[in-house]
Each structure stands twice: as structure tokens, then as C-alpha cells.
């Protein structure tokens, strides 16, 4: 099969840069996101199953995240074992009180969530993880679909050469548009509650020196086109710029009332760290800034509750629960069984399971995960037993064993392009993240809560598939019958 020409690769890279599918470099230049030249395929039936089940997962997580007694009772041991989640639990208790004295939160929950799946060869499509904070790259997901449509139109022979199945049809992807629609709709509702005038205002909380700014800016531009004013701030900037208006309205200096706060930061200690403050308690000031936001009449994603509810520990707990128990959060038994059909087996780390894993388990069938977000938080294969043997007992509850997923490898080789250089990949596997948006427990997109998808692919031989931190490439989806 002829390799793509240098002029074709150059055109593809320039399209990516021109359409914002890029990362910012330290010197303020941009480099394109790594991408595939042709999309993956999935059986239409599998995709439709995920479309049906993912909004139900979001309905479940939405209910769990507002069940404050359940959160505190269920996640207490994990919070004791994981310092970061221990801090989140303290903040959650400050915001909502304890079961003896429950406080009514002012903030209104906007759950923008990405649920990541792999289509396992043997067990079918299963959840890898829930992402409830900084669940980004919806804009990149839509752009990847548009990119492959461009290649199909402009370079049809190259596209066909590397397409897995010539009968496959692209799956529509409105990830950018639907997330913007959900946020704009929510912002207008908050503004209407205050009988506000002018444009509603959206605040994105970002990391200092963030490189993934173009994905964020694509969302901001889409919001601006829907009549929403957008502003960006770090927690450090917000620490002395927020104040309280009438009726618990959140005000931002030089801007005015805020209607929606969207956190693209806050999932790691470093997001709250301000060394120049020289604090006795690490990260106190900036984490209190996040608490201050939640004490106001503003739509927030992610709330402390949502971040706790989408943790690996909660994922494990929901996986191990009888499906009938989901009725507590408004799911029918049929809905609960549908959700559980896509949850991969998980086991707590304890002395009994460590002994079982060491002496009886097929170790290649499991992965060990801690509570961290993003890449680099998983242990695989023979290294798991070694890690378990080193863990002090007080750390057990910060970890979980999860069924390892082995997705289908692409049946034809693929060309991956990274840093403008093409390379042949013969064992590409893919992960699909489905976006959803719920406001105050109800779907808030034009697609009943669904909001598009993100495909990330990687060589099967690589454990880390992140676009940022691993060997992942941006991809899109086609469907076969």
C-alpha cells in the first residue's frame, strides 16, 4: 500500500493547526495534535448500546453526587488513604455539613461528564473510568470527525487506502456544539433566575501555563457564538477577585455576575498550590476559593460532590452493588441492569484479595489503579504483585483492582502522524469517550443528554494512551452493520 505523500501529510498537519487541533508550546508556538489518517470502525449495534447506556450512567452519577450522606459514608476509608481525596472530602463536608447537620448548598450542579469505554474482544464494551472534572477534549473529538471528512473529500484515495472497511459510514459527532449548547442553556437559566440582562457569563477555571488551551478556546468560541461571554482565570487569580452579590450571586472583579463555572483544573494538588503564600496547610487558600464558588447561586462543573462521585472508589462500589440498589437514585431495574452491563469487574485491595491475586489470579487479566486522574496512574501485569507487596495496609483503600480490557486491534495498518512525521502502526486499539451533560439532574443537550464522543487510539503494546501523556493519537469513528 503506497505511503501518503509529504504534500498530503503537510496539508493534513496544516488543517489541524488551522482548526485549533493543537497544543501550545512553551515558546507560544503550536504543534498539531497527533492523529490517524483514517477512522476506527465499530459495529453500529455496539455504538447504539453505548449511546443508550451512557446518559443512564450520568443520571446515576448525578443522583449519587447529590446524595451527600451516601458519599461520606461510602468514601470515608478511601479519603483516609488518599491525601488529595481526603482534602476533597473535608471540603465537601465544609460545603454540605455532616449527616447530623446537613447544609443546603447554594450551587447548582452542571454535570459535564465523559465516560470512557473499550470494546473488549471477549466481554464487549466496558467502562474504563468516569471523568467528572476537567472532562475535556469534546471539541477535539468533533474536530477529528471533521478532519477525516476533509481527508475523505480532499484526499479520497489516501483515505480509502487506510480505511478499515469500505462500507463503514462516519458516526455523527457534535461534541463541541452540544457541550456549548448545554453550557449556554444552563447559563441563561441561571441568569433568568436573577432577572439579569445582557449576555450570561461563563467562567473557565484553568491551570497556569496550560498547554491544552486550543481545545478550551474552541469551546469558548462556540459559546461566544451562542451569545455567552467567556472569561478564563486560574484559582490563584480568583483567590482575590471573587465576591458575593445580592441573593448569593457570584461576582468577579471587573466582570460582574457569573452564571456558570467550569473547572478545567482542580483534579490534582498542584492546581491549588501557591508556594508564595507559604501556607501552614498546603493548598488551603486556593481550595477555599473553590469552596467559596460552591457557596453561591451559580452552576458549577465539577462540584466537590461530582468529583467524589466519579472517583475510582465510587466506580468500584457501584460495580459491586446489586442493580436493584440503584433505585435509590431513580433508576428502574431495567436501567440499572443496562448500566451494570458495561461495568468491568473491580475488587478492593485487601489482604484476602492480595493473597488471591498473588497465588491464584491470571495476573495479565487485571490492572491496578489508584485514584489519580489522567495517565500514569495504572500498574500492569507482573508489576501489580510487586506493588501490592509494597503497599502499607493504610494505603489499601486508595487502590483498586480492575478487569483489564483488551480491545479489538484494527484489522488494517494505520498511519499515525505525530510532530508532522507519519509512521505505520500495525496494532492500533481505540478508546471511546462519550460526553453527556445534565443540569440539576436533567438532560440538557438536544440529544437527551448525549453530547458527542472522543476517540483516542494507541498501539496495543503501549499502556498509556493519553494524547498528552502517552502514545495516543486523535481518531474518529465509523460504523459497520
TrEMBL record:
It is an enzyme of class 6 (ligase). Its EC number is 6.3.2.3. GO terms for cellular component: cytosol. Its cofactor is Mg(2+). It comes from the Bacteria. Pfam families: GSH_synth_ATP, GSH_synthase. GO terms for molecular function: ATP binding; glutathione binding; glutathione synthase activity; metal ion binding. Residues 201-309 form the Glutathione synthase substrate-binding domain. Pathway: Sulfur metabolism; glutathione biosynthesis; glutathione from L-cysteine and L-glutamate: step 2/2. Transmembrane segments: none annotated. The keyword ATP-binding applies. Keywords: ATP-binding, Glutathione biosynthesis, Ligase, Magnesium, Metal-binding, Nucleotide-binding. Belongs to the eukaryotic GSH synthase family. This is glutathione synthase. It comes from Photobacterium aphoticum.
Amino acid at each position: 500500500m503506497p505511503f501518503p505523500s509529504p504534500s498530503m501529510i503537510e496539508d493534513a498537519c496544516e488543517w489541524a493547526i488551522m482548526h485549533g487541533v493543537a497544543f501550545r508550546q512553551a515558546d507560544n508556538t503550536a504543534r498539531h495534535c497527533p492523529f490517524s489518517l483514517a477512522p476506527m470502525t465499530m459495529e453500529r449495534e455496539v455504538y447504539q448500546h453505548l449511546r443508550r447506556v451512557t446518559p443512564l450512567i450520568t443520571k446515576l452519577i448525578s443522583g449519587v453526587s447529590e446524595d451527600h450522606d451516601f458519599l461520606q459514608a461510602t468514601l470515608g476509608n478511601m479519603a483516609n488513604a488518599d491525601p488529595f481525596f481526603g482534602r476533597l472530602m473535608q471540603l465537601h463536608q465544609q460545603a454540605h455539613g455532616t449527616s447530623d447537620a446537613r447544609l443546603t448548598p447554594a450551587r447548582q450542579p452542571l454535570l459535564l461528564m465523559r465516560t470512557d469505554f473499550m470494546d473488549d474482544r471477549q466481554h464487549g464494551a466496558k467502562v474504563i473510568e468516569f471523568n467528572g472534572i476537567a472532562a475535556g477534549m469534546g471539541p477535539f473529538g468533533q474536530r477529528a470527525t471533521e478532519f477525516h471528512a476533509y481527508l475523505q473529500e480532499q484526499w479520497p484515495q489516501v483515505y480509502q487506502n487506510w480505511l478499515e472497511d469500505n462500507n463503514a459510514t462516519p458516526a455523527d459527532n457534535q461534541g463541541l456544539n452540544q457541550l456549548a449548547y448545554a453550557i449556554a442553556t444552563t447559563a441563561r437559566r441561571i441568569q433568568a433566575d436573577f432577572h439579569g440582562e445582557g449576555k450570561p457569563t461563563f467562567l473557565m477555571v484553568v491551570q497556569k501555563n496550560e498547554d491544552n488551551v486550543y481545545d478550551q478556546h474552541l469551546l469558548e468560541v462556540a459559546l461566544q457564538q451562542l451569545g455567552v461571554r467567556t472569561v478564563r482565570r486560574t484559582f490563584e487569580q480568583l483567590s482575590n477577585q471573587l465576591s458575593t452579590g445580592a441573593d448569593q450571586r457570584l461576582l468577579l472583579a471587573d466582570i460582574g455576575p457569573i452564571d456558570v463555572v467550569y473547572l478545567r483544573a482542580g483534579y490534582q494538588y498542584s492546581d491549588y498550590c501557591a508556594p508564595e503564600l507559604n501556607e501552614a496547610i498546603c493548598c488551603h487558600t486556593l481550595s477555599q476559593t473553590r469552596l467559596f464558588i460552591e457557596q453561591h447561586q451559580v452552576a458549577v462543573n465539577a462540584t466537590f460532590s461530582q468529583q467524589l462521585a466519579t472517583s475510582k472508589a465510587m466506580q468500584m462500589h457501584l460495580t459491586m452493588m446489586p442493580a436493584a440498589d440503584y433505585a435509590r437514585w431513580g433508576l428502574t431495574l431495567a436501567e440499572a441492569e443496562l448500566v451494570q452491563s458495561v461495568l468491568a469487574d473491580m475488587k478492593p485491595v485487601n489482604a484476602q484479595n492480595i493473597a488471591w491475586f498473588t497465588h491464584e489470579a491470571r495476573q495479565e487479566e487485571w490492572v491496578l489503579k489508584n485514584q489519580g486522574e489522567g495517565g500514569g496512574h495504572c500498574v500492569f501485569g507482573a508489576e501489580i504483585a510487586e506493588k501490592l507487596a509494597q503497599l502499607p495496609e493504610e494505603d489499601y483503600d486508595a487502590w483498586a483492582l480492575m478487569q483489564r480490557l483488551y480491545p479489538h486491534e484494527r484489522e488494517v495498518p494505520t498511519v499515525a502522524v505525530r510532530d508532522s512525521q507519519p509512521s505505520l502502526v500495525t496494532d492500533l486499539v481505540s478508546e471511546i469517550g462519550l460526553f453527556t451533560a445534565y443540569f440539576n439532574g436533567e438532560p440538557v443537550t438536544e440529544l437527551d443528554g448525549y453530547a458527542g464522543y472522543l476517540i483516542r487510539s494507541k498501539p496495543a503494546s503501549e499502556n498509556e494512551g493519553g494524547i498528552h501523556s502517552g502514545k495516543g493519537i486523535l481518531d474518529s469513528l465509523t460504523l459497520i452493520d
